[in-house]
Design goal:
The protein folds into two domains: about 180 residues, Periplasmic binding protein-like II (D-Maltodextrin-Binding Protein, domain 2), CATH 3.40.190; about 210 residues, Periplasmic binding protein-like II (D-Maltodextrin-Binding Protein, domain 2). It is globular, with a radius of gyration of 28 Å. Helices cover about 45% and strands about 15% of the residues. The N terminus is likely disordered. The strands form five sheets. Strands 1, 2, 3, 4, 7 and 16 form a six-stranded mixed β-sheet that branches. It is α/β, with parallel strands linked by helices.
Length: about 450
């Protein structure tokens, strides 16, 4: 029996509605797949994932346990670790990324993010939130590796400046313990220094004051400026301000903290000062220390094995860096590396999952047990403070700070010249500082 025209029309309409609904559903599914796929996603659904990790200063043996632990839980992931020589590492990294054959994961120095952030992929908030990052890692990491509330690197360890001192030299000068403040250090230097003739030292009190023969001179001067309350930039970091005077709280007196710090630093190489104890003719600071020619110097933890190797019989120890006063909050200076993920990586999610895993408290605790480094995590630093070998570095990390550098190489060159302008060219500290600000601003404006 044939259907009437009206019944046939109703049946055909239902058919088209069903087909249309299926097509709409298919379009929605296809759209979802399109927008959730792409090179930023990891092939983690059972497919094979290969990650390459470039890092400086670290041997494969020390890293392997971190890699093995992750691969045990993620059978489809293979991680290849490559140790790089720091001398040309940055250029190698830039070239490799530009050529399209860079690593998935790579180390960056805590000064490098402004220069290389365009090459890096931030971690998803679902993997590690900013709140958790700030609560877990040293405060310096949040200023060094976070931009626009996005995390670009995770540190596995940290390092901070401390005072290295020769116990025999201090004892011979009648000094019972190392200085805790800069005024105390100034006093001790005058007791220790011995001169054979003008400009020649039999024994120096401290390796400070010059540029090229003081290890990490720029870091030390920056530390002293931070301790004195120097404001380095405007809030938007578009202009340098470290040459500006400030009003002393509670009075109408003005004070230039940057110029004061520069004067304190360079006084040790100024022949007109009673603190004259070091000059450009002195040996490199680490060599002078290991040879027993200088009583004190500032340095990082990475120098410990070097000193032990160069001078196994030297009677020396470690002490916190001097502060401007015993009554102010401590300020130290950080120097460390973080691990980030390349924007060009096709496995960004898996790379960040790996970094988040190995930077956990459990994994880093095992890592430090085999390789004694100062922790990047606050919850481990608290345990390390009492350690006889690294306790002074762990304590320093809790108050360590850093300074923004758009280009760390330019910052370094400008500050070295600033020191030389005072010592070699007889510039007043405020003039040398003003010239340095102009040079930094030229870089900021590029």
């Amino acid at each position: 029996m044939a259907l009437s025209d009206s019944k046939l029309k109703i049946k055909m309409d239902k058919k088209y509605y069903i087909i249309g609904g299926v097509l709409v559903l298919l379009l929605i599914v296809a759209g979802a797949l399109f927008f959730t796929s792409g090179p930023t996603k990891s092939k983690t659904s059972g497919g094979k994932v290969e990650l390459t990790w470039w890092k400086t200063f670290e041997d494969t043996d020390n890293i392997q346990s971190l890699i093995s632990d992750y691969q045990t839980a993620h059978k489809n992931v293979t991680i290849t670790f490559v140790k790089k020589d720091v001398s040309d590492y940055e250029q190698q990294l830039v070239n490799a990324i530009a050529a399209g054959n860079g690593p998935d994961i790579f180390s960056i120095h805590n000064d490098w993010l402004p220069k290389h952030v365009d090459k890096m992929a931030p971690i998803s908030d679902k993997v590690l939130s900013l709140r958790m990052y700030k609560d877990s890692f040293i405060d310096a990491a949040s200023s060094d590796f976070v931009k626009d509330n996005q995390i670009y690197a995770i540190p596995l360890a940290t390092d901070s400046l401390v005072l290295y001192y020769n116990k025999d030299i201090l004892g011979s000068a009648g000094i019972s313990q190392p200085p805790t403040t800069w005024p105390e250090l100034v006093s001790d230097v005058q007791k220790i220094t011995k001169v054979s003739k003008p400009g020649s030292f039999i024994r120096s009190g401290v390796a400070l004051g010059t540029s090229t023969n003081v290890n990490r001179a720029v870091d030390i001067l920056t530390l002293m400026m931070l301790q004195n309350g120097t404001k380095f930039y405007t809030d938007d970091q578009h202009s340098a301000t470290f040459d500006q005077t400030q009003t002393v709280p509670g009075s109408n007196d003005s004070f230039n903290p940057g110029a004061f710090a520069l004067t304190v630093y360079t006084q040790f190489a100024d022949p007109s000062k009673t603190t004259y104890t070091w000059n450009n003719k002195s040996d490199f600071s680490i060599d002078a220390f290991t040879q027993g020619k200088v009583a004190m110097m500032l340095g990082y933890q990475y120098m410990v094995p070097l000193i032990k190797a160069k001078a196994p019989n030297l009677n020396w120890d470690l002490w916190p860096v001097p502060q401007i006063s015993k009554d102010v909050d401590k300020v130290n200076f950080a120097n460390y590396w973080g691990e980030g993920v390349s924007k060009a990586s096709k496995n960004q999610v898996e790379a960040w999952n790996f970094l988040n895993f190995i930077s956990s408290k459990a994994e880093l605790t095992k890592y430090y047990a085999k390789h004694q480094l100062v922790a990047s995590r606050k919850d481990i630093l608290a345990q390390q403070v009492g350690d006889a070998n690294i306790g002074v570095f762990a304590d320093a990390a809790l108050t360590a700070r850093s300074v923004y550098k758009k280009d760390a190489n330019i910052y370094e060159a400008v500050f070295l010249k600033m020191i030389d302008d005072v010592i070699l060219n007889n510039y007043a500290s405020d003039q040398a500082l003003h010239n340095a600000v102009q040079q930094i601003n030229l870089n900021l404006q590029k």
